[in-house]
Amino acid sequence: MAAVDPIPIFCEGLSSLIHRTPGLQWLGHATSHHAALQLCEQLKPDVIVLDSALDPNCHLSRLLSSGDPALVIITMIRDTNRTQQYLAAAIAAGVHAIVPRATDGRHLTEAIRRAHSDRRYIDPTLAALTARPKRQPVLPKPGDAPKPATARGLMPLSRREYQVLQLVAEGLENSGIAKILFLSVETVRTHVKSILRKLSARDRTHAVTIAFRSGILVTSPDDAHSPAETPAATSIAPSPR
């Protein structure tokens, strides 16, 4: 299994928990969206644990699920996302399990096992948020098309375009993006042109602005970065062999 979380020490603790749990194997973690997509493409985990603060509109969950239907996605939900609307959107995006971010190790490992075996697990403390409200539709099932009310906006970009846009937002030029994603500069240039067209943007800066305003890109959580953080923190961190 692997994790997508902005806090290195949290990932270190999760890694330690997985290493000492029989039957589970730690593959690594990512701290950004494009690194998460790379991690899943390269390491192909069976289960990935995702911080809800990095996916407030469930775009990343949807891209991960569509890229690998067998992947089990577990969202660790923060209090700011603890709403009925978020749970419905997450399930519609392909999330298989939702647990509080403050859960303890025993409950998290049980959630991992239950999600892997049953492909659906909602922590009992969140059960009230999955109850059917009066005069409201039943919560969508995994694989169902998301409804407009459950997200700030639909994702118009492909997986690769999403990765390229993330790196453009980090200030990288086409050559730097090509090196990170193992693509040719011409391929990156083609993706950038497609991004500009799909977002009706004048240039790269305008595309990034539109993406943040529409919720395609999200700012890092307040606790995601410290002043001493280095650029390497946004890369894939594989498990030591």
From TrEMBL:
It comes from the Bacteria. GO terms for biological process: phosphorelay signal transduction system; regulation of DNA-templated transcription. Residues 220-241 are annotated as: Disordered. The keyword Phosphoprotein applies. Residues 1-116 form the Response regulatory domain. It holds the Pfam family GerE. Keywords: DNA-binding, Phosphoprotein. SMART domains: HTH_LUXR. Residues 150-215 form the HTH luxR-type domain. The modification 4-aspartylphosphate is found at residue 51. GO terms for molecular function: DNA binding. Residues 232-241 have a biased composition (Polar residues). This is Two-component system response regulator. It comes from Amycolatopsis decaplanina DSM 44594.
